[in-house]
Design goal:
Chain B: Keywords: Membrane, Transmembrane, Transmembrane helix. Chain A: Pfam families: ADH_N, ADH_zinc_N. Chain A: InterPro entries: ADH-like_C, ADH-like_N, ADH_Zn_CS, GroES-like_sf, NAD(P)-bd_dom_sf. Chain A: Belongs to the zinc-containing alcohol dehydrogenase family. The complex is a heterodimer of chains A (about 375) and B (about 190). By secondary structure, chain A is an alpha/beta fold. Helix content of chain A is about 25%, strand content about 25%. In chain A, strands 3, 4, 5, 8, 9, 16 and 17 form a 7-stranded mixed β-sheet that branches. In chain A, strands 12-11-10-13-14-15 form a 6-stranded parallel β-sheet, with helices on both faces. A two-stranded antiparallel ribbon of chain A has the order 1-2. In chain A, a hairpin with a 2-residue loop joins strand 1 and strand 2. In chain A, helix 3 packs across helix 10 and helix 6 packs parallel to helix 8. The radius of gyration of chain A is 20 Å and the shape is globular. Chain B has about 190 residues and is mainly α. Among the domains of chain B are: about 60 residues, no CATH class; about 35 residues. The N and C termini of chain B lie far apart (about 85 Å). Chain B has 6 helices and no strands. In chain B, helix 2 runs antiparallel to helix 3. Classes of the chains: A alpha/beta (about 375), B mainly alpha (about 190). The interface between A and B is large, with 114 and 102 residues.
C-alpha cells in the first residue's frame, strides 16, 4: 500500500509499505477514505517529539471503511463506514472506565504519561497513522463509530480530533454565562474552541494570532473579536486594557509547542529542542487571565521541561486544566450541534492534497502558504 | 476604570448574542457538557466486552518505560529498533524513567542518529533520500510564496531562515565531508 512516511526532520514522502495486518483479536483494518494533517503533526514533522522513528506513518485524523476485522470484533462489520477517534484505548482499564480515554494505561508501552495516539511517534505507543491507504485500528469495538447517514464525510473527519479537541478545550475553561474568553491561536483547534465558547454562553470571545488570514476566519467562522499580537508592543497589556484591567475570565491555549511571539523562546523550544516546546502562548495565557480565572491548555507540548511562569499561576490563584481530548465522549453532543446547524466543521478545510503530494502538503501547512488552515489528504485506495 | 466590586457591563445582551450566534448558550447548563464531570465511572459505556484485553503476541522484544510493571497488552508494532539509534533508544528506555531528562534527551539523540543512519542506508536502495522532493519545497510554486509571507506582519518571518539550514545543512556537511575524503584519497594515491 502507499503511505506517508517520515524521513527525518522536515522531510516526508509517499512510499510503498506492507499493508497492516490483524495483530490482536479486536483489531480492524480500515481503508482510509480521508485523512487530515493536524497542527500537532507539524511537531513530529519538525522533529520535536522524542522517539519519532524514520519510517513512521503519521496521521491521527482519519475516516474510512472497515476492510478486515479480528475474531473478537462484535460491533463492526466489513464495509462499515467509520470515523476513528485519535485516541487508541482499551475501554477497560482504570482510566477508560472513568471516561479518561486519552489516558488509557493498556496501549502504550513507551510511556505512562500519555495514552495511545495513531501515528504520533513511539512516545505515543508506536502505532502507524492514517495518512495511508490502510491503517490498523486496535480495539475496534471501542474506538471507531459508524458515520451517521446524515453526516458529511468532511464533518466526520473534523470530529476525529480538531473539533472534539476545541469543544473539549472550551469545556475545560468552565465557562459561565457572560464570561470573557480569550483563545490564543487561530488554527483549527482555536477556531473550534472559540466557536464552542459561545455554545457555553460566553459574553465575549477574543482570538489572538499573528496571521491575518486566520484572524479573518476567526471573525467570520467563530464570530470572535480578534487581536494580531504583532500590532501590539505587549499583547498582555492589550488583554488587560480590553477587560478593564482585570484580565479575561478564561484563556484557552490552542497554540502549543511552536508558539511564536518571543524569538528566544521559539528558537530554544522549537528549533533547538532545549525545551518541551516554546511556552510563549502558555505564558501569555497565564498573564492574560484574571486572578482566580481558568487556563485551558489544548496546545500540544513535548514531554521535557518548558520555561513556564508557574509563580504567576500560583500567585493569581489560577485553575490550570488540560488533557488530550477523550474524543468519543464528545461525539453524541457534538453530533447534536452539527445536526442542529450550530456547527459546520468542514468550513475550516482549505486544501485537499493527494497522498502522492504529501511532502508538498506538509510544507504548505508548515510554512502557512496560500492561506492554509486545514489540509485534507485523499489516499484514493482501491 | 477604577477597581471596584462591580462586574464590567456586558457589551451584548444574552438575547443579542442568541440572535447573532448559532447555538449560543446551548451548553450553558454544565449537565449538557460531555466532559463534565471529568471522571465518570461507567465501564459499560465503552463497548469493551472484556475485563482485561487479550495479549497481542510480542513477536520481537518490545521496549517499554520502566514505569510500566509489565508490557501493556496492546501496542504499536511498527519500525522496530535497529542500528546505533536502536542502541541509544533501548538504553533510554531500559535505564531512565520518564521523569528523567536523560530519558528524553537520549530519545531525541536517537532520532537524529536514526535520520543519519536512514539517509545512509537509503543510498544503497533504488530510492535514495533527497531533500528537494521530500522537503516539499516544490509546493512554493503556485502557492503565493511571497504574498503569503508578506501579507501582514508574520512573527515567524524572523526565524524562517533556520528551516532551510535544518533541511540542507546536514546534506551540505555530508557533501563537504565526501569532498574532503575524496581529496585526501587522491592526494595519498598520488603519493
Amino acid at each position: 500500500m502507499r503511505a506517508m512516511t517520515y524521513r527525518g526532520p522536515y522531510k516526508v514522502r509517499t512510499e510503498e509499505k506492507d499493508r497492516p495486518k490483524i495483530q490482536h483479536s479486536n483489531d480492524a483494518i480500515v481503508r482510509v477514505t480521508r485523512a487530515a494533517i493536524c497542527g500537532s503533526d507539524l511537531h513530529l514533522y519538525h522533529g520535536l517529539m522524542p522517539d519519532t522513528r524514520v519510517g513512521t506513518t503519521f496521521g491521527h485524523e482519519f475516516i474510512g471503511v472497515v476492510e478486515e476485522i479480528g475474531s473478537s470484533v462484535e460491533n463492526l462489520s466489513i464495509g462499515d463506514r467509520v470515523m476513528v477517534p485519535f485516541n487508541v484505548y482499551c475501554g477497560s482499564c482504570w482510566f477508560c472506565a472513568r471516561g479518561l480515554y486519552s489516558n488509557c494505561h493498556n496501549v502504550n508501552p513507551n510511556a505512562t504519561a500519555v495514552g495511545g495516539i495513531y501515528g504520533y511517534s513511539h512516545t505515543a505507543g508506536g502505532y502507524d497513522g492514517g495518512q495511508a491507504e490502510f491503517v490498523r485500528v486496535p480495539f475496534a469495538d471501542v474506538g471507531p463509530q459508524l458515520i451517521p447517514e446524515w453526516m458529511d464525510e468532511d464533518d466526520a473527519l473534523m470530529c476525529t480530533d480538531a473539533l472534539a479537541t476545541g469543544y473539549f478545550g472550551a469545556q475545560l475553561g468552565d465557562i459561565s454565562e457572560g464570561d470573557t474568553v480569550a483563545v490564543f491561536g487561530a488554527g483549527p483547534v482555536g477556531l473550534f474552541a472559540a466557536r464552542s465558547a459561545w455554545l457555553m454562553g460566553a459574553g465575549r470571545v477574543i482570538v489572538i494570532d499573528h496571521l491575518d488570514y486566520r484572524l479573518e476566519k476567526a471573525r467570520t467562522f467563530a464570530y470572535a473579536e480578534t487581536r494580531n499580537f504583532m500590532h501590539f508592543d505587549d499583547i498582555v497589556v492589550e488583554m488587560k486594557k480590553t477587560t478593564d484591567g482585570l484580565g479575561t475570565d478564561v484563556v484557552i491555549d490552542a497554540v502549543g509547542a511552536e508558539a511564536d511571539g518571543n524569538l528566544t523562546q521559539h528558537i530554544t523550544g522549537s528549533k533547538l529542542k532545549l525545551q518541551g516546546g516554546s511556552p510563549v502562548a502558555l505564558n501569555w495565557a497565564i498573564d492574560s487571565v484574571r486572578k482566580g480565572g481558568t487556563v485551558s491548555v489544548m496546545g500540544a507540548y513535548g514531554p521535557i521541561f518548558s520555561a513556564i511562569k508557574f509563580g504567576d499561576a500560583v500567585n493569581k490563584g489560577l485553575t490550570l486544566r488540560m488533557n488530550q481530548c477523550p474524543v468519543k465522549r464528545q461525539w453524541p453532543r457534538l453530533f447534536e450541534h452539527i445536526r442542529a446547524g450550530h456547527l459546520k466543521p468542514s468550513d475550516i478545510i482549505t486544501h485537499r492534497i493527494p497522498l502522492e503530494h504529501i511532502s508538498e502538503g506538509y510544507h504548505l501547512f508548515s510554512s502557512k502558504l496560500d492561506d492554509c488552515i486545514k489540509p485534507v489528504i485523499v489516499p484514493s485506495a482501491v | 476604570m477604577p477597581y471596584t466590586a462591580d462586574q464590567p457591563r456586558p457589551r451584548e445582551s444574552a438575547d443579542d448574542l442568541r440572535a447573532r450566534i448559532p447555538g449560543w448558550g446551548a451548553d450553558l447548563d454544565p449537565a449538557d457538557r460531555p466532559a463534565v464531570p471529568r471522571e465518570r465511572f461507567d465501564p459499560g459505556a465503552t463497548g469493551a466486552h472484556w475485563t482485561f484485553p487479550d495479549r497481542q503476541p510480542e513477536t520481537q522484544p518490545r521496549e517499554r518505560s520502566i514505569e510500566h510493571e509489565e508490557l501493556p497488552p496492546v501496542f504499536g508494532d511498527t519500525v522496530h529498533l535497529k542500528g546505533l539509534s536502536g542502541v541509544i533508544r533501548r538504553h533510554a528506555y531500559a535505564r531512565y524513567s520518564e521523569a528523567r531528562a536523560a530519558h528524553w534527551l537520549l530519545l531525541i539523540l536517537g532520532d537524529r542518529v536514526d535520520a543519519i543512519e536512514s539517509h545512509l542506508v537509503s543510498f544503497a536502495t533504488t530510492r535514495p533520500d533527497e531533500p528537494i522532493t521530500q522537503s516539499g519545497v516544490l509546493a512554493e510554486l503556485g502557492h503565493r510564496p511571497v504574498g503569503s509571507r508578506l501579507d501582514g506582519r508574520r512573527a515567524d518571518l524572523k526565524h524562517m531562515w533556520i528551516d532551510p539550514v535544518i533541511v540542507a545543512g546536514p546534506w551540505l556537511l555530508a557533501g563537504g565531508a565526501v569532498v574532503l575524503a575524496a581529496r585526501a584519497v587522491v592526494t595519498r594515491a598520488r603519493g
